[in-house]
Amino acid sequence: MKASSVYxxxxxxxxxxxxxxxxxxVTPTHSAALKPTNFNSINAFPTNDSNTFLSHHTGTSTSLHxxxxxxxxxxxxxxxxxxxxxxxxxxxLGYLLGAVSILLYTPIAIRVLRTKSADGLAISTWWxxxxxxxxxxxxxxxxxxxISAFSETLVIxxxxxxxxxxxxxxxxxxxxxxxxxxxxYFLVTCWALFAPVGVGPSDSVIAYLQGSAIVVNVASLxxxxxxxxxxxxxxxx
Length: 237
Known about the structure:
- By secondary structure, the chain is of the alpha+beta class.
- Helix content is 61%, strand content 12%.
- A five-stranded antiparallel β-sheet has the order 2-1-5-4-3, with helices on one face.
């Protein structure tokens, strides 16, 4: 027990000489409960237990348990609270980024709907973009990441689907080729997401596809750039 605690108990003993009765909390030795009792004086001295003082009261040996907070527990609690706050902020920012991502391709879709024309857009660009975003979505879902961690990719995936549908419709490409591509995309995506272990793609394959998604996304601009160069126009992208 620290020396400051000894001084505190000695001061308490001195004060008791000026008052007829002093109220305190003591417990019998080996007891965990605190029981109030009246005594005229108290004499305490430390034991081998750093949290216990033995005191003599009217000839009866009692133990006075003094507890001090565990600094490591307090630090752990503070760190835990900080982690919760940081996680909440990160989640909020993730959803905010997803909401802002709506502004990425939505203007293109609105322009196509307003003009009822998609001649300035290369359809292959949007097939490649959809493939790129889907690879990233599958990777995040299969790894169990929270939606807030990749909400922006989910949003632009939906936008890519919408624009691809508009381009297909206004360019009158609702043919067998488009149907085969759409069915293939749907079946491969479902296979990657829902196939049981050993039947679906391995984790290494999914990680490889996610890594190559950036390359595919950059390459998706080439058909659009080629079309713009041939037409000597900036297109509608």
